[in-house]
Specification:
Length: 193
């Protein structure tokens, strides 16, 4: 890899608001940050474009890239359902002169932090009250009672990893969380807002 930039990793249980925070930071720091596009083996959804939303690979292609050491981190979420971060994607963004921001699951976030050490800031986004996460997920209107139970069990599990991150960012009030996220990024990158 060329001369490295920095990485800012946002991970969180579902419903915590990490994607909203990452989108905000990409707008505020549009000339400093670039979003890392993940690779996956699931089929594209109707509104998704290869190379913009994800790099869509077959399970065989994904496994070959694993064997070749092309991933900075990867996870097999279900059988033949892989997600990961290509080293070439990080390199591409660094070569553009920007630092890389990630919106990844908790395990992926920890693997990236382990791989990049002090070059990475790992941020765990959470909501103080479990009931609030339940309310946010329920408001999406996409969950059955059974899938909601599975999601909440995963939320509780992912919360057990929060102390392994560099920073815990509480998102009980979005405006406050956005300001705190801006400060974290500007301090880590040593730039002014």
């Amino acid at each position: 890899m060329s001369s490295p930039g920095k990485l800012i990793i946002f991970s969180a249980p579902s419903g915590s608001g990490k994607t909203t925070i990452v989108r905000h930071l990409l707008e505020v720091f549009h000339d400093k940050l670039a979003f890392s596009i993940s690779a996956c083996t699931r089929a594209p959804r109707p509104h998704e474009t290869d190379g913009k939303d994800y790099y869509f690979l077959s399970p065989a292609e994904f496994r070959q890239k694993i064997e070749n050491g092309e991933f900075a981190e990867w996870e097999e979420v279900y059988a033949d359902n892989f997600y990961g971060t290509l080293r070439s994607e990080i390199e591409r963004l660094w070569q553009s002169g920007r630092d890389v921001v990630f919106d990844v699951d908790v395990k992926g976030g920890l693997k990236l932090k382990e791989a990049f050490g002090d070059l990475a800031l790992s941020v765990f986004v959470k909501v103080s009250e479990e009931e609030e996460i339940y309310r946010r997920l329920n408001a999406r209107g996409t969950e059955t009672e059974a899938s909601m139970e599975r999601r909440m069990a995963k939320v509780r599990y992912e919360l057990t990893f929060q102390d392994q991150f560099d920073v815990i960012l509480v998102n009980d009030d979005l405006d406050t969380a956005l300001l705190n996220a801006e400060r974290l990024v500007s301090d880590f990158l040593n730039i002014s807002i």
